[in-house]
């Protein structure tokens, strides 16, 4: 169940509560004086587990997802790439930095409108 952070300006206290999304919406309606706080101190288990090692099946699954989504952030970490693909990506990134281009996502559609 998700945790939601709250701040009470009257008492200057912060607290968390576990509730479903629908319950959180109702809680916000019932307590308009509270401010919702978004805590970003979570740990993602996308690449590691509590023991610091990933199961081989999980690694394979991440690799498949990365292979199917080459423009995603996950592709940088989990895709099995050839040396040519690595050099091409490095050259593209180098030239983006040189030219001051901030968009890091590539358009791989080839002009298709799917």
What does the largest sheet look like?
3 strands, antiparallel
| Arrangement of strands in the largest sheet | 2-1-3
Radius of gyration: 21 Å
Through-space gap between termini: 36 Å
Strand content: 5-15%
Tertiary shape: elongated
Defining traits:
alpha+beta, single chain
Structure description:
This protein is of the alpha+beta class. Helices cover 40% and strands 13% of the residues. It has four helices and three strands; from the N terminus they run ββαβααα. The chain has helices at residues 21-30, 56-68, 73-78, 83-99; strands spanning 3-8, 13-18, 35-37. Strand 1 and strand 2 form a beta hairpin. The two termini are 36 Å apart.
Question: Can you lay out the helices and strands and say which pair or pack?
Answer:
Elements: E1 3-8, E2 13-18, H1 21-30, E3 35-37, H2 56-68, H3 73-78, H4 83-99
Antiparallel strand pairs: 1-2, 1-3
Quick structural summary:
The chain has four helices and three strands; from the N terminus they run ββαβααα. With 114 residues, the protein is α+β, with helices and mostly antiparallel strands. The protein has a three-stranded antiparallel β-sheet, with no helix packed on it.
